User: Fold this.
Amino acid sequence: MTKFINDADRVAAETVEGFLAVHGAEFVAVPGTYGVAKRVPGDKVAVVSGGGSGHEPVWLEYIGTGFADAVCQGDVFAAPPPNAIVATARAVERGHGVLFVYGNYAGDALNFDMAAEELQAAGIPVRTVRITDDLAAAPAERADERRGIAGGFFTSRIAGSAAEAGLDLEAVYAVAARANAATRSIGVASAGGTIPGGHEPTFTLPDGQMEIGLGMHGEPGVRRGPMLTADEAADQMMAYLVDDHPVDAGERVCVLVNGLGATTRAELYIIARRVRHNLDARGLHVHDFHLGNYATSQEMHGFSISVLHLDAQLQRYYDMPARASFFIGGQAAPAEVVRA
Amino acid sequence: MRVMTVEDVRRMLLAVAERIVASQNLLCAADRAIGDGDHGLGMRRGFTAAAERLEGDGFDDAFVPFRSVGDCLISTMGGASGVLFGVLFRGDVEAESSHTLSLDELTRHFERSLAEVCRRGRAQTGDKTLVDALEPAVRSLRQSADSGEVGLASALRAAASAARSGAEATKGYVARFGKARTLGERALGFVDPGALSTAIVFEAMADWAEDHDGQGRRRDPATSSTDA
Assistant:
């Protein structure tokens, strides 16, 4: 794969520079880091996300109304260092504490935990929600070991809105943790992506094969086999999702059919059509349905399906206005303002 | 060698940094087998910065060069390795202070490092991590220190051998962390890159100490193993 880059060592930096070239009216660089922050953060709990570069729009673009106040990226597929995370959090912290929201990967946890210690030592309270939506990464009884993939979109959005509603840190944390616990995702891929400057894809499959449950960095999944049709793949993945988090007819769900980088929108629509049939057949009420590249892994060819099981509390925050560079949503009445 | 001066510590850690930077390709190759293949790149970045810090700063405390290297790795590497190798060098925040470093002080430093690495990484021996090399190295240092009869150079050599054996033993383990965890038994037969780096760190310290044992006397290959 020949990429349009300049220097493999500058990919993380130049991605951020490009984001600010386009969106610099709203956001500003955090000096000395691959972090960006809102120019005008609200007087509220600060929501801060981050992780390795290379998964855009995760995490770089998960910033905006109803999303994070600041995000901090690392090098490609590598967690940012603690000092960068601290500087990013300080850029938007306004005396109400910080909520970290990031994917459940060892490197991210080590660096964000060390950043949290430093902030807490300086008197800034910090709570952490790690995204664990990938049901293929570990069995349900060890759900806290699961990785974070595209379903983090739902948790990020609800966390951002809960903070904007004026909740205090403990309450924002509780709502975000609840959103994470109510989200399940599963992915499938037929070809891996290549790290910029790398020569080999993060994984390879024999021609005509696909793997369900494969991770964002090529971590092995739960079922490898011959390529299925779009409908067959969607049916199998919906079965995994419903098996892991049973649903009742009439329940409200939000759904995301996510492209992993190289999947065409036509393919995603064909998948979405079958997902919708599945949801309708189970008597579920589709509250919101998203389609697009919301969490990618370079030019990985594949997709994931994420389902958020809404309850009244989550829906209140989900329906608040939300806008990020890759997404506009939320039109229902604003949540009750509970600012102290 | 019974104690190291601040300058000894600084020069020893510079030698460690040079050895790790020179091992970049070896470490990347080890990581390609069961990880992302970038371990050597992160280590080169971190130890290049650490070497610049060691070259540039004056130190008046024998523990401070360790802390400087650790802080440098943490702030420049990112990823899991940045924190874990940073903590390996930094120890913990309640560090001692001394103008010279005895074997007992060096041992206590690495005992704190081991405790911090295990606490933060939530790893134990047998999990196929750097702990598998660090734990036997620290245990060896403790035995040497308690015996009261072993010089620093010999103690570091024994620790380096223990670290190397521990790293080799990771070939027989499945991983509990990182990308290698998801490989399950497919990770068998491959050494953990972090454990390999840890062995190289201790070997570089042992080589430096032997080379500078006995008032600057160069290591004599015929006698280098008899200093104990």
Q: What stands out?
A: Chain A has two domains: 8-181, 183-310. The helical segments of chain A are 11-23, 82-92, 106-121, 152-164, 169-181, 230-244, 265-281, 312-318. The interface with chain B takes residues 52, 74-75, 77-84, 106-107, 110-111, 113-114, 137, 195, 198, 202, 215, 217-220 of chain A (CB under 8 Å). Residues 287 and 315 of chain A are 9 Å apart (CA to CA).
